[in-house]
Automatic annotation (TrEMBL):
Protein name per the record: Plasmid pRiA4b ORF-3 family protein
Residue ranges annotated for the Plasmid pRiA4b Orf3-like domain, each copy included: 4-171
Organism: Micromonospora sonneratiae
């Protein structure tokens, strides 16, 4: 039996220009494993809680305090909850509230000569972790771009005095990182 591969387009909501990735993942992946794929290809560091919303059903890691009503993502396979043409949401970091729109663009048989998962395309760098959500990211970019901005030095030092290139994204590097899951 040939494995089914899903082509997903993952787009970060409420940021301009839109940060997006196109990935090929096995349909048999659990949502937990898909979460890890998204972390690697988007550029997040998996420091925060997350959830999936598929047709109004919430999936995620079980909440030990019982405050969040989530179905266990370890029990949900991608191919069991979505199909070609489906749309769903992935939310990362309930403080910063990074929402990702996910579209299942295609589903096809695996190429026996290809290793999955793979990031085939994308644009723009992922915002830094803990920058404060879409609003904080806009402030961050404005401060870095303007040496006269009152928060310029603060944002530079907060970012470890590293340059932040908003236009930078390397699908090959993302694939190398995500293949550690395979």
């Amino acid at each position: 039996m040939t494995r089914q591969i899903f082509q997903l387009k993952v787009s970060l909501s409420d940021v301009t220009p839109t940060v997006w990735r196109r990935v090929l993942v096995p349909g048999g992946y659990t949502l937990d494993r898909l979460h890890r794929v998204f972390q690697y290809v988007m550029g997040w560091r998996d420091c925060h809680l997350h959830s999936f919303d598929v047709d109004g059903v919430q999936y995620g890691a079980p909440d030990p305090d019982g405050e969040l009503v989530l179905r266990d993502e370890l029990d949900a396979r991608l191919d069991a909850v979505v199909g070609k043409g489906s749309r769903f949401r992935y939310t990362y970091d309930f403080g910063d509230w990074w929402e990702h729109d996910v579209i299942v663009e295609d589903a096809f048989s695996a190429d026996p000569d290809e290793r999955y998962p793979v990031c085939v395309d994308g644009e723009w760098a992922c915002p830094p972790e803990d920058v404060g959500g879409p609003f904080g990211y806009r402030v961050f970019l404005a401060a870095l771009a303007d040496p006269g901005h009152p928060d310029h030095e603060l944002m530079r030092s907060w970012n470890g005095d590293r340059a932040f290139d908003q236009a930078r994204f390397d699908a090959g590097r993302a694939t190398t990182l995500v293949r550690r899951l395979a």
